[in-house]
Design goal:
single chain; about 325 residues; alpha/beta; Rossmann fold; seven-stranded mixed β-sheet; six-stranded parallel β-sheet; 11 helices; globular; GroES-like_sf
């Protein structure tokens, strides 16, 4: 089958179109013919080698973390899917590879594609949708009447998180550029801060939850907008010891990971707020619940561009430029 691979790690390492073996199917796996895959900042981090210590993957490597497609075969112990089913998924972190024609996905990570979405729209959802769900619902326990501040509201995670937070009954503040103010308002944002003109830390106070996805400066400033007992959940800050334990890292590596976030965790304690790092995981069950919200019209995908499969490298470069609104998708079939 055809797939885009990298031979080595590097920030500018080009993707190479190659012929690779079709994936082997385990007893609890589903073989999916990929129709569309989306690009995520995670792909850029993996390509650069920034995650190789905590996410060991074998080179040469097929990139790509989420997909929509059609089931072609199922493993002997698969019960919920059959050939012909239209599905979408976020792969296991150690079994990525959706920039390809086929992939084997664990049944537990798979869900039926929302009926109201095209393949391209469905492929834009899994990673960012699950990230929003696990941050706001699972880890953040966001409730009606609470206030949440979501960084980068026009990005892939931001566009989904705003909609989900509003569905949960929360008041939402976000940052974006002036060009995207109307977009985030249309998604439900109550307070929109133009980050090029105003400082969110001087505007927002007493928030229950912050979802952080930017740099170190924004991470530290986010502490000041939280009420005592509030939560700072980061997707891009230094990982915490809980993440290292849950990932099954060796004790020494757990200690090193803990040291990385010691400074920010100390500052959080001084302000009486909680700090947590989120590295989302695949979940077919959560995707099914997101699919119900999508088909009911509560959540809609936001797609900037769709690239042909042959232009996957250009799609990755476009995401790397930081100009994308919502998601960038590759049409594989």
């Amino acid at each position: 089958m055809k797939a885009f691979v990298i031979e080595r790690y590097g920030k500018q390492e080009p993707l190479q179109l190659a012929e690779v073996p079709e994936p082997k199917l385990g007893e609890q796996d589903v073989l999916v013919q990929i129709h569309a895959a989306s690009i995520n900042p995670l792909d850029l981090k993996i390509r650069s080698g920034a995650l190789k210590r905590i996410l060991p993957l074998r080179l040469p490597l097929v990139l790509g973390n989420d997909l929509a497609g059609v089931v072609t075969r199922v493993g002997a112990k698969v019960q919920r899917f059959k050939p012909g089913d239209e599905v979408y998924a976020r792969t296991d972190t150690r079994r990525i590879g959706t920039f390809a024609e086929f992939i084997a996905v664990a049944e537990s990570n798979l869900a039926l594609k929302p009926l109201s979405l095209s393949m391209e729209e469905a492929a834009s959802i899994p990673l960012v949708g699950l990230t929003a769900w696990q941050a706001l619902v699972e880890k953040g326990n966001l409730r009606k009447g609470q206030k949440v501040f979501i960084h980068a509201g026009s990005g892939g995670v931001g566009t989904l998180a705003i909609q989900l937070a509003k569905q949960l009954g929360a008041s939402v503040a976000t940052t974006t550029s002036s060009a995207n103010v109307e977009l985030v308002k249309s998604l439900g944002a109550d307070i929109v801060i133009d980050y090029k003109k105003d400082d969110f830390a001087k505007t927002l106070r007493d928030y229950d939850l912050v979802l952080h996805s930017l740099g170190a400066e924004e991470l530290e400033k986010s502490l000041s907008v939280l009420r005592p007992g509030g939560q700072l959940i980061t997707l891009s800050g230094p990982p915490d010891p809980e993440f290292a334990r849950d990932a099954g890292m060796p004790k020494l590596l757990q200690l090193i990971v803990g040291l990385l976030s010691r400074k920010i965790r100390k500052k959080a304690r001084q302000r009486q707020v909680n700090y947590a790092f989120l590295f989302m995981r695949g979940s077919g069950e959560q995707l099914a619940r997101l699919g119900e919200l999508i088909d009911s019209g509560v959540i809609r995908p936001v797609i900037d561009k769709v690239f042909p499969f042959e232009a996957t490298d250009q799609a990755l470069a476009y995401v790397d430029s930081g100009r994308a609104k919502g998601k960038v998708v590759v049409k594989v079939r």
